[in-house]
Amino acid sequence: QALASTLRPAIERGEFRLDYQPLVGMSDGRLRGVEALVRWDHPRFGLLPPNRFVALAEEDGSIVPLGRWVLATACRQAREWQLAHPDDQPLFVSVNVAVRQVWDSDLVADVAEILAETQLDPALLQLELTESAVMGSAGRPLQALQALSDMGVNIAIDDFGTGYSNLAYLSRLPVSVLKLDGSFVRGFQYEGTGAPPNPADEVVVEAMIDLAHRLGLTVTAECVETSAQATRLRRIGCDTGQGWLYSRPVPPDRISELMAGAS
Ligand code: G
Ligand code: G
Ligand code: MN
Ligand code: NA
Question: What domains sit in the chain, N to C, each tagged with a CATH number?
């Protein structure tokens, strides 16, 4: 509660920052994009991860101004990377969007304004929404998704597989990417990590990837931690990977170094 009451002034004081986690092409291991992850550099409590304050911000509505700051910062950063590396394939930036941002704020107008201001190509912006944000979305949320998609922004479903969505329904929404929840990858058969193997997960994931592709969606696997998992994911056609195998979330300077070919 003490945290919640100080969220809004903290935005004004510039206490939030973004780290970025690489999103890697499974076929060649190359950096394709990054997911922006917000942190609160709290003057008393130190660096707070999003699970300490995002839910509070959703409850009291401060997720709307915070989310706007995250979008603007991530888009500005993506444009800076593009300008600094004009000969490279530009990185896309993926930004988490809370349900409340779709409902309570003028998300579409905010995104349009931020893209115009930063001069970022809309195709380089991906918005991550959870299944619950889009399922049964009629009226305002669906209009928002459609308008964003018409703008050229990509919509991804975060933590896919943990909720109720079915792929047939999702394929009728303006969604282009599924981010498979980490719990599927964790259950893969592999050796040497002590994790309990669950062979059924691999069958389920293979079928989901196949169906997603047939419906015109691309698939990103979250929580890829071992090369054995990456090998299997590649074999069953997963497009993009994210996880500690490739990199933890890192500050923007580190992404610049990766782009420059440092390691
Ligand atoms: O980094 P960490 O594992 O603590 O992230 C926890 C959760 O916080 C994730 O589910 C992630 O989607 C969410 N999150 C991270 N950054 C943002 C953000 O900028 N906006 C919203 N709404 N959620 C975020
Ligand atoms: O819900 P969302 O997918 O946006 O959350 C992303 C969170 O998952 C980030 O906070 C990130 O730190 C965490 N994460 C990313 N890669 C891995 C991984 O390989 N293993 C685990 N356990 N967590 C990860
Ligand atoms: Mn996410
Ligand atoms: Na996720």
Answer: 2-259 (3.20.20.450)
